[in-house]
Amino acid sequence: MDLGLGPHAVFIVASYAVTLVVVMALIGSVWIDHGRQTRLLADLEARGVRRRSAEPRLPTSPADPVKETTA
Length: 71
Known about the structure:
By secondary structure, this protein is mostly helical. The chain contains 1 helix and no strands. It has a domain at 18-44. The chain has one helix spanning 9-46. The chain is elongated, with a radius of gyration of 27 Å.
């Protein structure tokens, strides 16, 4: 099978192969980390841990009033 790559065919094919391996490794790393983070989040939610940003904000100074929301 001649792709017309000339005398540098081995280098070109090897470069594409290395690039494919690196990209697949990055995809695998992200996939594994996603699973790890999903399990961690499920564990935190099961233990009742909530985000600090969900807590009501208290004023830190008189110049920083708390905006009250009415439902």
